[in-house]
Design a protein that fits this description.
The chain is built from 13 helices and four strands. Strand 2 and strand 3 form a beta hairpin.
Length: about 290
């Protein structure tokens, strides 16, 4: 039983790495514009289907679909930003309705183009079993877990060290004050949406390489990303990673000890418990301001 629990913890941690990639993109756009992009999960799913198309048409590793997926997803992310930018009144509420509608449109576009079939990678190299001690995983799971940590480190460095990263933090903190410092908020917000698109692309390819994809998956990914973002505290990269690991491990233990039917419920219960104990998230207000 102990070995089963350890395997479950290991698998949940690996899944948490992918969840972190999805949530970091949502957290970035939410932090700069105070807007929850409800189409973010569908953008992740779009990248996954681009990877499926490249693999099925050309018989290559899905990772090689990254350039094409980046172009498609970042273009869609920019379109989402420009549509949101046209909203002048009740921006928070109207943007929620707009991005929800865009998510529905993307889901139906996926249904029209790729149908409702379930797909997974056929790459033998990605499905190869890897043993770490007494723990097992697919090569793709371990690969994208390491990649997610590297991407999170690069994102943290970009936010704290680069000019655009500091501009993103300035706009997130005080939009009007950022204008007085010579920062163009619209340009910074577009950059944050494009970076979120890059993160969504990597996450989408990771999901296709490690599991199965279907059109309804996008909505579920958005919900998970929102849960992680709120648990972590907006603007906290370490908090997002920790919250993603917690969610992944909770879901994995629920499937192992109880039933896969309770997997989604377990995430919501974790969400409520953490918010009840720590209303500001795992990393409080001070960490978010920093």
């Amino acid at each position: 039983m102990s070995e089963l629990i350890l395997q479950s913890l290991y698998s949940g941690t690996l899944v948490g790495g992918i969840y972190a990639l999805i949530a970091l993109g949502l957290s970035l756009s939410f932090g700069t514009m105070r807007i929850i992009n409800l189409a973010h999960g569908e953008l992740v799913l779009l990248a996954a289907y681009v990877a499926y198309t490249v693999e099925s048409r050309f018989g290559v590793n899905p990772i090689l679909a990254l350039p094409l997926a980046l172009a498609v997803v970042c273009s869609c992310s920019a379109i989402v930003y420009f549509l949101i930018g046209r909203i002048k009144r009740n921006r928070e509420l109207n943007s929620l309705m707009l991005t929800f509608a865009l998510g529905v449109i993307l889901t139906n576009a996926v249904l029209l183009i790729w149908k409702s079939d379930i797909h997974s990678t056929a790459s033998t190299s990605m499905q190869k079993a890897i043993q770490v001690g007494n723990l097992y995983s697919m090569f793709s799971e371990l690969l994208f877990f390491v990649l997610s940590l590297l991407v999170a480190l690069v994102l943290g460095w970009w936010l704290s060290r680069s000019w655009y990263g500091r501009a993103v933090r300035a706009v997130s903190s005080n939009r009007d004050a950022a204008k007085l410092m010579g920062i163009n908020p619209a340009k910074v917000e577009l950059v944050s949406f494009l970076v979120a698109g890059v993160l969504a692309t990597i996450a989408g390819i990771a999901i296709f390489s490690t599991g199965v994809i279907s059109p309804p998956l996008g909505h579920s990914l958005t919900v998970k990303a929102f849960i992680i973002t709120v648990l972590a505290g907006v603007g906290s990269v370490p908090g997002v990673i920790l919250a993603a690991f917690l969610l992944g491990i909770t879901e994995s233990l629920t499937v192992t000890l109880f039933s896969s039917a309770l997997q989604e419920l377990a995430g919501m219960v974790l969400f409520l418990i953490v918010l009840f104990i720590m209303p500001n998230g795992l990393f409080g207000a001070k960490a978010r301001r920093g």
